Task: structure prediction
Amino acid sequence: MKLISWNVQWCRGCDGRVNPARISKVVKEMADVDVLCLQEVARNFPCLPGSAGENQFETLAGLFSDYTVVKGVAIDVLAPQGEWREFGNALITRLPILQVYRRLLPWPADASVPSMQRSAIEVVLQAPSGPLRVTTTHLEYYSAKQRAAQVEALRGLQVEAAGHAAAPQPGKEGGPFQPVPRPASGILTADFNFRAEDPLHAHLQSPLGAGVPAYRDAWRLRHPGKPHAPTLGVHDKTQWPGPPFACDFIFVTEDIAHRVEDVVVNTDTDASDHQPVLLVLSD
Result:
């Protein structure tokens, strides 16, 4: 299974142009992808630099016509003209979808900095090896308090999923109570807005309790002892003038860590201010 995670900055490249087709082209050149996890996808936000307010969820659905697009909207507001504005994540996949969970992450008040609501999409996919959860999100940039709360929420969701997997609940056939698999095995991708040396990176991987597989950084599984390839500040020196660094990671639960075949960061493209990350997982 091939998965790419990418903060696409509302499809805006380092040249200032918003171009969803360019995003699609880079993805398809990288891999025959099964799952694409995108952060910063916009609809009807003409105030974003370079944007005309295009519906990028709709445009991406057309560019990946053989895939299903799952929206994970975090900002959902009514524009003055009476049209909805949406901003958040998208998970695009050609694998069968068993269940979708759209979650708003914690957003504790922090008046010291700007911030916005964040969301996570958790999708249960029918992978060749069996049901697999893929979660993609985008954590708060400015507020350390909110970012820490969001990491705790992601850890809590992993504990919850493992509980459902260990003790499936009784259900009713043919209605909303019909049970759907929610395995403990999963992949977590995001622009986490923390660096590899941040304590939150280690905390996200700390033990979760008996019978609950913890998360492991896929890069470190594949490249032990090697620094993370940078995912931000590689090409865009206007927004990120300092040395490039990594803040976009892919984690896998430890029960599937042995299936990580490769993790690759595409440092060549300048189609966004971030670099896309590819995970190859054996079946």
The domain at 2-169+180-281 is CATH 3.60.10.10 (Deoxyribonuclease I; Chain A).
